[in-house]
Design brief:
Layout (H helix, E strand, L loop, with lengths): L2 H19 L6 E7 L10 H10 L8 E7 L5 H10 L4 E5 L2 H10 L5 E5 L18 E6 L1 H16 L4 E7 L8 H15 L2 E7 L5 H10 L4 E4 L11 H10 L4 E2 L8 E5 L1 H16 L10 E3 L2 E6 H7 L5 H6 L2 E3 L1
Parallel strand pairs: 1-2, 1-3, 3-4, 4-5, 5-11, 6-7, 6-8, 8-9, 12-13
Antiparallel strand pairs: 10-12
Helix pairs in contact: 2-9, 3-4, 5-6
């Protein structure tokens, strides 16, 4: 080989090596599908992004987050928009409904979810062998129902009767039978008589609460709903419970006496783990759904005072958060 040919070959090799060394890292694209209104805060939360950075994916460097909200276009349309963007993975924030919408929109893009009953809702075939393109975290709804009743009994110094209130149509949803079974089990263990009531629209709440109080029902729980629009009146429902002095379980930040929920930050860390694994090449079918049972108790002290309830110190010490 002539000297000039050697120089040319060396130059080409060096050029290619330099290009490879200085190449920009491939951008990972995470789609976030939120079952919520648009807010100034990212629906996936800072904990999720911080944890994802530990897996090597940092916004502004090698990660782009595409967010789509259901407020104006609906969940199905929002999910379809993320599919059209060809994101690498979809994180369905805030539960089962967004995961179902994402599943309807794509059978190929990986989806990571948080759900109370992923098998019952048809998201996966089983927890150990999810199948398809979905995996994530299963939060244990029955444990939450049981702890809620136990906490209410402790708050009142005993509990003989309790009402569960749900919207029209809830009985046909996959999670309903499991919820009722958990409530029945807890009621049997604690010796509590329970009843279930169906309401249609906000106007039905006040006469129902009045009737419960008249009959001496001692507490109530507002059951979950899949309707995001209903969230805007939940605070008004809480004010009705307070007005008629009926202790109730529900979102404590909106005025309910107490609430048992999951350690949201820990859930988001596990979601970030799944997303990170998938971005590095893992398939959802090979990632078993994790069962998550870390519960937290939140008590609204302001509501307790308004209801005239002197909460026992033992319950206060067990609480993970006290709202003043």
């Amino acid at each position: 080989m002539k000297r000039r040919d050697v120089w040319a070959a060396t130059a080409i090799f060096a050029s290619r090596l330099g290009s490879a060394a200085g190449a920009e890292p491939r951008l990972a694209r995470v789609g976030v599908l939120a079952f919520t209104d648009v807010t100034t805060e990212p629906p996936e939360g800072d904990v999720f992004l911080t944890e994802l950075a530990k897996h090597g994916y940092v916004v502004g460097r090698n990660l782009v987050v595409e967010r789509r909200f259901s407020r104006y276009v609906g969940l199905d349309a929002a999910a379809s928009e993320l599919v059209a963007l060809k994101v690498d993975v979809i994180y369905s924030v805030e539960g089962t409904q967004s995961a179902l919408a994402a599943k309807r929109a794509t059978s190929s893009i990986p989806i990571v979810f948080q759900s109370a009953d992923p098998v019952g809702f048809g998201l996966v075939s089983s927890l150990a062998r999810p199948g398809g393109n979905l995996t994530g975290v299963s939060v244990q709804g029955p444990a939450m129902t049981s702890k809620g009743m136990e906490s209410m009994a402790a708050a009142l110094g005993g509990l003989r009767s309790m009402a569960y209130i749900h919207q029209v149509g809830a009985r046909s949803l996959p999670w309903f039978s499991g919820y009722v079974a958990a409530a029945d089990s807890a009621a049997t263990a604690l010796g509590v008589r329970i009843e279930f009531h169906e309401v249609q629209g906000f106007a039905a709440y006040e006469p129902l609460i009045q009737e419960l109080v008249r009959r001496g029902v001692e507490a109530a729980e507002l059951m979950p709903t899949a309707d995001p629009a209903w969230n805007v009146v939940t605070e008004q429902v809480a004010s009705l419970f307070l007005k008629y002095r009926l202790p109730a379980i529900g979102p404590t930040q909106l005025g309910f006496l107490l609430q048992c929920d999951f350690a949201d930050d820990l859930v988001k860390k596990r979601i970030a783990y799944f997303v990170g694994r998938i971005l590095k090449g893992a398939k959802p079918v090979d990632l078993p759904v994790e069962e998550f049972s870390n519960l937290r108790l939140v008590i609204n002290l302001k509501t307790a005072r308004a209801l005239g309830i002197a909460l026992p110190r033992s319950l206060l010490l067990r609480a993970d958060e006290l709202i003043q």
